[in-house]
Amino acid sequence: MKKLEIPIYREDNIYTLFYDVYHAKLYRFPHRKNSYIIYLVVFIFLLYGSGTLNKIYLPYANFFFNSLLLIVIFILSYLLARNIFYSFYDKATQRHLLIDKNKLKDYAIQGLKQWKMEIYLGGGIALGFTVFGMPLFFILDKIEFLVITGLGLVPLHMIFLTSPIKRYKILHKFINDEIQL
């Protein structure tokens, strides 16, 4: 999957339709049956192991070290989000699709509703975790709040990986019949 492929519609946990901006083609990527147990286990381990991590961290706690840890969490959360995002789709079985104009418009309308839900609900909750966790990490010097910040950053990175502004514009172009396949 290239960066020029923008998701326009997701059918439950079955497949996602992507629009290739460069070639003006529509592709269908099936979803893999991924197990997110490993991510859940890592998160639980970090959350419950944070007491031990706090004992190691507290002697070094200061603004500079906290900033460094925040940068590390930002990078790790991006790498995790990227890994989850790109492993979610089975690229080996992609199919080029030809869809009639009316069906494509329906997909775009549904895709816009999905986009709004992702941005407002998913982005809002994730931003809430990040905005809640980051200042408390700096104020209280507790690793738990750094983990909460990371938990909020992962979905935010995933949202940005879908190129939300470009996606919004493309969906509107499909709705207004400005893009022809």
TrEMBL record:
Keyword Membrane: yes
Listed transmembrane segments: 36-57, 63-81, 119-139, 145-165
Keyword terms: Membrane, Transmembrane, Transmembrane helix
Name under which the protein is recorded: Tandem five-TM protein
Protein species of origin: Oceanobacillus kimchii
